[in-house]
Amino acid sequence: MKGNKIFTCFIAATMLPVITFAQVKTHHTKKRMEQTTNHKLIIYQLLPRLFGNTNTLNKTNGSIEENGVGKLNDINDKALQEIKKMGFTYVWYTGVIEHATMTDYSQYGIKADDPDIVKGRAGSPYAIKDYYDIDPDLAVDVKNRIGEYEALIKRSHNNGLKVLMDLVPNHVARTYGSDIKPAGVRDFGEDDDKSKAFSPTNDFYYMPGQPFVVPSGYNPGGDEFKSLMKDGHFDENPAKATGNDVFSAAPSINDWFETMKLNYGVDYMDHRRGHFDPIPPLWNKVYDILHYWSEKGVDGFRCDMVEMVPIEFWGWVIPKLKAGHPGIIFVGEAYDKGKYSDYINKGKFDYLYDKVGLYDAIKRLTRDEHNSSTWEINAVWNHDSKGIDEHMLRFMENHDEQRIASNDFAGNPWLAVPGMIVTATLNTGPVMVYFGQEVGEPAIGNEGFSGNDGRTSIFDYWGVPQHQKWVNNHKYDGVKLSADQQKLRGFYYNLLTAVHNSEALKSGAFYELMIANEHQPGFDTRLYIYARYTNNQRILVITNFNRSERKLTVKLPEDLLTKLNQSGHKQFTDLLSGAKFNTDDIRSGVEVSLPAMGGLLLEF
Predict the structure, then answer these.
(1) CA-to-CA distance for 205 and 238, rounded, in angstroms?
(2) Whether this model's pTM surpasses 0.90
């Protein structure tokens, strides 16, 4: 997400209904062909601004001097080796591009931003100020900030990790202006005809004759923050449209008022009619940005709010960039289930967020919400992402969502165990973990603009206390973690390394076992059971979302046993704990005991 405190998109309107037995019965034996491409990226998302910060003051609306800030150089070889050791294959460095901020870097030739259109003391990393530059906050030597990022990319590669970074294509900061763009590059808006509300050749949308109005009631940086520019006014005339499709000179405080929407040739005043021939100038400008960072060794882009940009642009720019960088990947933040296939097949994305789908279903189960059911998981692969499941990126935390350990989500990081097992192993697509998730960071405290909302702030300078215990003054050895936190991190290690090392989990076929077991004693719709298999490996996945223990004899149907050529006595080994389970005859099933909010990965 971007520079908004509360996620106000259209998610509520697309909440997944509870799926009944009758709706799924005919699809219970769905199998998937084994994949020839390894889609099982294992992604570690981190904000450099927060990741290496060892300052523990955590003052609400604190300055960079008071609360501290992480640096790119903090992400050293030891940190990267520990990330790699956990099974991760990619690191998404979130918020590295220069964005609007209340911190003054004018001594380095960087124009100061008006705080009236900045959210938080640090500023939103999704209000980009210069697409060709790196956030000076993150540099030890501000003048060498791009060099320090290039060194981090190289360091990541040397430690066997690939690099993702953000592309924020829909909007930029109201103070956008590149002071280091390559020769020949024209800035956004530099050639616009500001007398026109819309023109396919403009980079922005305008309200001619209307100056921009800062939302009333905004107190940037809190009472303690003082600035000569903090006066409730920002000089922008004519006003430009705001990032969340607000075509008004006076956006509200709940809008993305700190951003300006970019114009890809869509006339919002004429029923969103597209003007794509000839190609709008903005298209090539965004391509140039992608090419610039790709040339520096970036391996892929996580693209913000892709559905707010026309699909025709994606279908043009992604193949164009891949022609010169064939290994590069594109991950799209998407929320409209009805358009997933289009963004994969027409937009050419490699992966899309599975938020309105698997994340929402698992969150309800994890929170023990009334009427939550594992048939909702069935609906994800059987309906929402049917045919494109390997392209869906799964997660239980990211920078937009509440921390599992927060009271706003589950209040206990261990309650994520069954959900993370499903998230990581349901199919062959990517899985992502947010830094601090693996040690149970609860995101407690009123950070400033973000407030005490169960999220780790992307707007404020802050330390991440439980994560800092693992950082241990940049030793990255976890010595300060409690025994319970070390055990939790051990669970994530066992799960992710099992996924990384397992042929069946990376590329195997899928067979849901809910129908085969619905009449077994102990079965209920807070259990989810399936098999993942190849010719060489078989894994039975059993998860329990109940808040109490369950005992169950899990049966595998005859057609699956025949396909797997399995009969007679079998021993099952849990890849998470090493526990052994035996059956004298696999056709009679295997008896298991499932702890409350737990799960098993049984290799046999």
Answers:
(1) 10
(2) yes
